[in-house]
Amino acid sequence: MSGLRARLAQGRLILMVGGEAMQSALNFALNLALLHALPAKEFGVFALVMVIGGVGLTYIRALTAMPAAILIGQASRPGRAAIHDVTFGSAALLLSAAMAASVAIVLSAWVESGAWAGGAFVGLWAFRSHLRTVYFADQRQGIVGIGDLAYTLCGSLTAAAIWAGADILRNVLLILAAANALAIAVMLLRARRRVRVSFGRRTRRRYLGIGRQLAWSALSVTTTNLQGQGMALMVAALAGPAAYAPIAAALVVFVPLRIVATALANMKQPELSANLARNEIRTVRRSVPAWMAAMALGGLAYGAAIALVLPVMAPGFTETSSPLVLALAWIFYTLTMVSVMPRIMLEILGEFRSITMITVGSAVLGMGLSLLILLTEPPSLALIGGVVSELSVLAASGIVVWLRINQSRHGRVQASPFDRAPKGGATPPDRGHRLFALEPDERLSEQGTAR
User: Transmembrane segments in this chain: where (predicted)?
Assistant: First the structure.
């Protein structure tokens, strides 16, 4: 049985990473093309849009996708999983719309056209990320793979926008927004069930019932963003988008490592949450360090491959990013990969205060070092601050997780931080074939039938 579980886990990870790899290849090729097609300022703006979008994904994950994945993974029956799907899906839709409007307003100060295209891209990207995480938690990763394929195929049309040469930045953002919309539609159609959305009293009460946990989650992700993205935002603010371009170009090369880390988090968080719910502490103790070692080896192997392949595939790349900056980006993302397991374990254990303290301390350390480098050295070397910050996060979070798991010898480990999560059955069976349905409050009764 353990061998079968291992093979299934490997198959799921391969499928997940395959979908992420398609998107990563598209983004890598797109960044290389835009690096030569756009002026430094506009490429820096595009890179910052991607950073802002990535930050938006962290909030979607913290406030909707992550609690949904944990609770769906622990659900004892389909009814409870369905009610979580409704509650957090509704919140995700609202949050994504707010992100789209906010990003459009910010971009209007940087670009003359394309601000709303960028906002739509970020908002749709965020909602697609929520759906992907929920489907992963529901063991429906095949649907996610089909959606990723649709996104990649549609996103490849950006080549035509670059070739046309007119308002490249706006048109690329429009195509990426359309690609996310297509992927969302494909996933919903493939799932053969509409996404129920409710903003009624009961849904609000369910969501706000875990408000304290969500507040800590939001605070922890805010400090994590300051720790992880503070260096990029500081360089852009103090030295301008053009100064950030060499760092962005180097980070693009190693984005696949972050993609793999995201896929691993989507796969392992529901599983580890279920393990703790069943008090399978020994399984957790084995799994966490094993996957950390696997991620470290994967990062080292990828860096070695890039060192061999990049000079052949893109011989002029070092004109934009020096070998030192590329090496720093490699270390940065490898540390990010290794730290993903301690991070998701802290979330499962409800250690949001610990996450906040760790990331605040690491952000102060990393951003302080980056500021010192910006004042005395070339801006591209500010990435050193990011590396130091990520290393401190890995060390501190690993220590906290180790201490908490070892405490299980004297008692049961808390299985979920969302102990006041909404309970009850699912929404009624589907009626009709609409993708979205606004459900009246009384139809979300906790006495509903299973999906």
Answer: 12-37, 43-65, 86-107, 113-131, 143-166, 172-192, 213-237, 243-267, 288-312, 324-342, 354-375, 381-403
